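In this supplementary section we document a worked example of the pipeline. Step one takes a protein sequence of length 331 as its only input; no multiple sequence alignment statistics are reported here. Step two produces a three-dimensional model, which step three serialises into structure tokens for compact storage. The input and output of this example are shown verbatim.
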Amino acid sequence: EAVGKFVLAARERNHRLLYLRPYERIDDTKTFLTKITTGLERADLKIGTPTALEFAQDALLSRISLAGPLLGLALFVTVFNVQWLGVLVGLGVLAVSFLFGGFGSRGEALLAAIVFPVLGFALARAKLVDWARACGITLMGAFFVSALGAGRNEVLALEPFRGVALTLVMPPLLLGLTMLPRQDIRKTVRDLWATPVNLGLIAIIGAVIAAVALTVLRRGNTTGGSISPTEARVRAALQDSIIRPRTKELALHAPAMLALIGLLPPWMNNLLLMGSTIGQGSIVDSFAHYHTPLLISLQRTVNGIFFGALIGVAVIVAARVLKAYFDRKTA
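The serialised model returned by step three reads:
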């Protein structure tokens, strides 16, 4: 466990000075040093005297990047079936971003982190290919977050990204608002209020609320959520061999892919898509760890999309087999 954490710090957290405390037994210390050396060599990291790195930020590119989140928000507002609702939601998102993120580039970085994870599915959610396009749009937002929020103190991890919880909670809510039909909002509210409720629906809603709560609690490294020993072992095994994808990305690509093939009832597909935007927000969250090298975050995202797609294909095949089985039983 210690070796994995030390190598991870150097490879993925940009630590250039590792302080090693010896074990009580000499043989343990020798094993410890040998394994760390092997892990660093595997990551193409050399052992020597650390040198200070210069921080340089392109002011012109940063100013140009300011347009990205604002244009993304403007595009998001246009997808609402009720235009005045879209305008109100857009103004609300803008206010929340600058209130929690701060004025200037930090606020716009948070704006990009909120809008782009939901923008892909807000624009199109009819075909399986729309999942891939949504991932691309989210990745575009992640680069805006990197360009706008990565100041010197952020890269040194002295000032963390503000609003991580918002990037996980707001996208599902925003996507749900875009699904409201083009009709009188009052009639929609009355219809929702009059919808018959059964135990199955209550169970699904409860599971969704529990999943969202767990996601928020487990954000970052210093919050109250914890992981099981089994998940800890899986994480350790993965991070020793590849750039480990974030768990939320890995798990939440499959629901989106399942929803987009239209196998389930429309309301359930909508719930799955709303939940999957948490995984899209997790992509942005990877890039909001500014002390992590950009290419490491990119590899983590690519790995998450690749392995998430494999899980999604397996889920789709299993769902089709189960549907065919129950259809035969019903017939």
